[in-house]
Design brief:
Structural class: alpha/beta
Strand order of the largest sheet: 1-2-3-4-5
Number of domains: 3
CATH topology of the largest domain: Nucleotidyltransferase, domain 5
Oligomer: single chain
Order of helices and strands: HEEEHEHEHHHHEHEEEHEHHEHEHHH
Bound molecules: iron/sulfur cluster
Largest sheet: 5 strands, mixed
Number of strands: 12
Mean pLDDT: 90
Distance between the termini: 57 Å
């Protein structure tokens, strides 16, 4: 019996009726309140001895620490309500599941018993509940500086709100500052100008503090070393908990599009694209075959961030041991140059989004956060307006036949955005190749660039 559509009051009353009705084997979204804490239990399963099994459902592929706390809080409320709960579990996706022609829920889902952990955590719950109540009852939100805690165990949805009034010189924006920021915050430093003299900063950080552009003296050598032909590569992939195609595992990436610009030593450029939006089978092999063929065996492959590299590495891993594509993909990976890593260590511009310089890229940073420093930045409109996960989301909707747009429109948008990403990569390379600060050409070569 599911109560997920009921309001709090109705759900509480219905739950009581269902709990006392011994013919009911399980309740979904059962509602309880104790000590002013209202909860909804994903699944409450009646046991043969009339005790209960509490099951918390998660879309992850394992039971995590944060889930155990979630279960412990629910167990605290259920105990307070006099419920006899003997077993506590987290139901999650089985990462080893391989999809057949239809979904097999018994194999797709796994139930991990966390009862032994809950006992210890439950003792901590009353203390945490009191703290939370104090915070909620206070007239003002607590004064907590945003920091690393905002990204663990999940990115906090209030990040934009909490940082909206931070000045550009906020210490939390110190590039590559994972190590220094906590130390500075502990010393009461809030902005760059409060950093004590003599505090150890890298060259890039010293320039960031002065909000000045900086180029490492090694940058020209690194850029000159890129072997021709230089390939600028962007690709789109989709991932989903329930495998999209037969033979796939949960969250395995489905690459469905690539765009490529090839630049010869003489400055000639040419474009190529590939896209497969078929719903019948995973386009993984077709993707690899087309890409390997077009990238050839020579020259650098310029990409942005670890996403492209991560996709190529995971595709290589998934290939059978004797696949002829396996060594070819390995060779492609060895030719990839991550332009974000070059920027992170050798180039600073105060207009670039601070997230680009983080050691661990946050989910909301992509090449669109660099377009501010590129000439003709109005040419990257789709890159700026469609979020990082847009293509994956739309592709999954299309495969699951829930898409609100037509396939033709989606195809057009994916290609247009992918072109903008590749064009941005090309422009970034040009920007980083400029010989010295102050001598940047006013016009970047755009002949042949769409
Ligand atoms: S972003 Fe979230 S975690 Fe970070 S300070 Fe704000 S509310 Fe707290």
């Amino acid at each position: 019996m599911s109560l997920h559509r009921d309001d709090q009051k109705t759900a509480l009353a219905k739950t009581q009726a269902l709990v006392t009705n011994r013919t009911v084997p399980a309740i979904f979204e059962a509602a309880f309140v104790f000590d002013d804490v209202f909860i909804r239990v994903d699944i409450l399963e009646r046991q043969p001895d009339d005790s209960w099994h509490l099951i918390e459902c998660k879309s992850t592929t394992s039971a995590k620490e944060a889930h155990r706390w979630d279960v412990a809080l629910q167990a605290y409320v259920l105990q307070g309500c006099g419920m006899n709960v003997h077993r506590h579990s987290v139901m999650h996706i089985n990462r080893e599941y391989r999809h057949g022609s239809v979904l097999s829920p018994d194999r797709f889902l796994r139930v991990t018993d966390v009862s032994s952990d809950i006992e210890g955590l439950s003792k901590e719950i009353p203390k945490h509940v009191q703290i939370m109540k104090r915070v909620l009852g206070a007239p003002h939100p607590p004064s907590v500086e945003p920091g690393a805690h905002c990204w663990q165990p999940y990115p906090c949805e209030f990040w934009a709100h909490c940082t909206k009034n931070k000045p550009a010189q906020w210490v939390g924006y110190l590039p590559d500052g994972e190590r220094q920021i906590p130390k500075l915050v502990a010393r009461g430093v809030r902005t760059f100008d409060q950093i004590p003299p003599g505090f150890s900063l890298s060259s890039m950080q010293q320039h960031a503090v002065q909000r000045k552009e900086w180029r490492s003296s090694h940058l020209p050598t690194v850029m000159k070393r890129l072997p021709y032909p230089i390939h600028y590569l962007h690709l789109e992939t989709a991932w989903y908990g329930v495998p999209l195609f037969s033979g796939m595992k949960p969250y395995e990436r489905v690459p469905f599009q690539w765009s490529l610009l090839r630049e010869s030593e003489g400055g000639m450029v040419n474009w190529e694209d590939w896209v497969d939006l078929g719903r019948e089978r995973a386009p993984v092999l077709a993707f690899l075959e087309s890409l390997v063929g077009r990238l050839g065996t020579k020259g650098a492959i310029v990409v942005y961030s670890g996403a492209v590299l991560g996709t190529l590495k995971s595709l290589r891993q998934r290939l059978p041991r004797d696949s002829p594509h396996k060594p070819l993909v390995k060779e492609l990976i060895s030719r990839c140059v991550d332009v974000r890593e070059i920027i992170r260590s050798k180039y600073y511009d105060p207009r670039i989004h601070h997230g680009v310089y983080d050691a661990i890229p946050r989910r909301d940073t992509s090449i669109r956060h660099i377009v501010e420093v590129l000439p003709d930045r109005h040419r990257y409109e789709l890159l700026s307006t469609l979020d990082v996960e847009w293509a994956s989301r739309e592709y999954c909707n299309m495969v699951n036949q829930r898409a609100s747009e037509s396939v033709a429109h989606f195809r057009e948008q994916v290609l247009a955005r992918s072109h903008q990403a590749v064009r941005a990569l090309y422009a970034v390379r040009q920007l980083l190749t400029v010989p010295a600060a102050g001598t940047r050409p006013s016009k970047v070569r755009t002949q042949g660039i769409r």
